[in-house]
Amino acid sequence: MKSIKESKWVYVLLSVLIATTLWLFVRMDEDPEMENRERGIPVITSGERVLETQGLMIEQIAPADVMLVWKGNWREVSQLNKENVSVSVDVSKITEPGEYELEFTPNYPATVASSAVSLQSSIPQTIRVTVAKIYSKPMTIQPVFKGSVEDGYQAGEFIVEPEQVQISGTQEKVDSVQTVQVVLEQKKMKESFSGELELQFLDKAGKQVDTEGLRLSAERANVYMPIVVMKEVPLAVEFISGGGATEDNVACVIEPKSITVSGPEEVLENLEHISLGSIDLAQVIGEYTDEYPVYLDAGLVNISGTDTAEVRVTVSGLATKTVEVENIQLVNVPKGYKAALVTQKRAITLRGTQQALDKVLVPQIRMIADLSNVAATGSYNVPVTIYLYAGNEVGVIGQNNVVVKLTRG
Predict the structure, then answer these.
(1) Are 244 and 395 in contact (CB under 8 A)?
(2) Backbone φ, ψ for residue 18 (5° rounding)
(3) What is the pTM for the complete model shown?
(4) Burial 257-271 (b: 16+ CB within 10 A, else e)
(5) Which domain holds residue 236?
(6) Per-residue model confidence as pLDDT tens digits over 291-315
(7) Which of 227, 239, 293, 384 is close enough to 367 for a disulfide, judged by CB 3.0 to 4.6 Å?
């Protein structure tokens, strides 16, 4: 019994399908005339670029969609719906701000010939278009960092590209935007950030502005936030041995002792100290104090802000001895000139251990005055180079000069 009933329903369904197919075949074959009514047909505009050349823009279109009633062959009319039909209004003839009632033109799909359908009616019959002057202003994009940086790291300069955004629209709408910002919110950053973020348009209360109706030269911005390492690095000076003194004889105090710098991790990793320069110990007599500028390699930043350091150097543990030297020689006398020493002997100061100083003899000392830079008659105060043949434990300190008179030969 059950199989008989099931067979009956199968025959019923087949009958309905056959009947429907035959009906469609007859409709298509005869192609009778019919009427089609469709709501929600979208309204689009044409001629906006021409409107913009007049300094104008569309502020509002009402309504945004219409209802159309067509009449025509069933084959053509049955294809029309809100998905493939639109109506367009031409705004290219408008030259002044104001409200305009404009007629519209239906746009049909390519599969439907416009001559095969007849537009019977529409609701509404015209489209109200409100046109306003275009108002435009540039606004600087403000970078905002709402994240955090891991301990031992520092955020560098927040860079935004482009720096400005051009906002266009009605004056009321444009003026509602008081701030444009881009926000980076990453937490505990240890690496630099580079990427694209959306712009935020805020009113005077700090709330987001609906940008519909606004034309924006950019809606996103490229941002770069460098993250660098911080490190406290000691300051140091290098000593040039001289005047019988070496680094072992020096007491040095530098204020400040160190500064905090930031920079790439790979650079700071091997940075053990920052050199302020070198000091020739032959020129240090007793105590020496001076200010030295703090220079950093490119890519490093002085976070401490201290750009100079005071260096105090004291040489101790050595004795001094003053002797008079008569062995003074002149070299490189200019051609065509004669040179004569006005200074016949010169007192110089030696420094070293007392034991080494006691062994120094005056004949072991020789002075050389180089006249390469003298080329005219007259008397000149010429620096001398002192040669001391008494080992490395004793040296000459201070600057020494002799007076030389130059005459035509």
Answers:
(1) yes
(2) -65, -40
(3) 0.53
(4) ebbebbbeeebbeee
(5) 229-315
(6) 999 999 888 889 898 899 999 999 9
(7) 384
